[in-house]
Amino acid sequence: MGILRKEYKDKMKYRTRLLNTLTVKIHIVIFLVAIGSFLYGCAALQEAGEKRQKRLDEKRVEKRFMLTASKGKIGVDANPLEGKPHGESEHYTLTFSKDLLAKDKFDEEKEREIFTGSALSYMESLYDELHRIYGFKPKHKIHVTLYDLYRGTNRVAVTGTQYKYGNNIKTVTGITMHFPMAMYEKHEVRVHELTHAFTNIYFLPTWFNEGVAVLMQMEYAKGTGHPKFESLEGSLKTDLNGINELENWGGHIESTPLTHWRYCYAYTVVSELRKRFGNELYIKVFELMEADQLHQKLAGSMPTSFIVYYISQAAGVDLVPFFKNLKFNVRKIDKDDILQYIQNQNRQ
Ligand SMILES: [Zn+2]
After folding, report:
1. I want to staple 72 with a disulfide (CB 3.0 to 4.6 A). Which of 90, 118, 286, 287 is the partner?
2. What is the pLDDT of residue 135?
3. How many angstroms does the Cα of residue 40 sit away from the middle of ligand 1?
4. CA distance 261 to 264
5. CA nearest to 146, candidates 183, 171, 114, 111
């Protein structure tokens, strides 16, 4: 994604400030009726035979990612009290899980000190990069936990955004990231997960959220995990109702024969639109959603028609025919339809 203009950044800063002020007010009157969490689990799909190539790729990408070291303050505590992190920086905390502390690489104080300092410095640099690209950033610190195995596997990293819903408004309350070390060590996975930490605050449809994260993983981080399909029509998969299988993606940890197809197809869709309408397309989508703040008012997840409305606005072209052709569950709507939908959802 392209670099933002300064005016745009200033505008976003103003909007973020305005949003912060509003959120404080909302907190005062809020009646808590629900809490929830969006979870995005990202399976690593590389096979063992590709290991050598990957090591070479990692080296190459590592060079690209040797960003300027973060100037921010980084605090490290190799032996923290129970429940406290091993390190903290401006936008993160970092904690080693018990199973990782038992491993050779992390069982000595010095090893944990060195790793924590450099990991937080790197993650801060990456954070600055994504902030520069998107023009907005999440309000909450990201709490990262590293494991040997997370949920019994070393192949899935999970970013969760916690929120509460009350007074007809969703408010983000925290962000967590869980990485098995085997996933944390992959630059492309870190970029993918950090993209979620930024974009989850918009409560996007799963296929779009994953599509944008894979776009960053493949095209910014030059990853290899989820290659693009050559043809959207040729690789289309539909369910028994004739609806694109991307619409059935629950968004929680999923591992079925369809999962790899879903990542790749979602990426192919967002990449194709970006190619047609320019590098700034999704920056504009986020800008438009930020201006309207309608995403916060949805009780449930965002329907595809909602995001297609914003992508169409950003592209300056009605994209409903494009999505209908790919069998998405979509219809042409305007802002009044969205407002009406929100009102109906909230009616007792
Ligand atoms: Zn993901």
Report:
1. 90
2. 86
3. 5
4. 5
5. 183
pLDDT tens-digit map of 223-258:
998 999 999 999 999 999 999 999 998 765 677 889
Q: Annotate 39-53 with three-state secondary structure.
A: EEEEECCCCHHHHHH
Tell me how far the alpha carbon of residue 213 lies from the centroid of ligand 1, in angstroms.
6
Structure tokens at 288: 């438009």
Give 28 Cα–ligand 1 centroid separation in angstroms.
33
CA of 253 to the centre of ligand 1 (A): 10
pTM of full prediction above 0.85: no
Paired tokens of 280: 């700034």
* Å from CA of 7 to ligand 1 middle: 30
Spatial distance between the Cα atoms of 123 and 91, rounded to a whole number of angstroms: 9
pLDDT 10s digits, 251-261? 656 778 899 99
Asked if 252 and 210 touch (Cβ cutoff 8 Å), the reply is no
Mean pLDDT across 135-144:
93
Contact 183, 157 (CB under 8 A): yes
- Map out the domains of the chain as residue ranges: 6-346
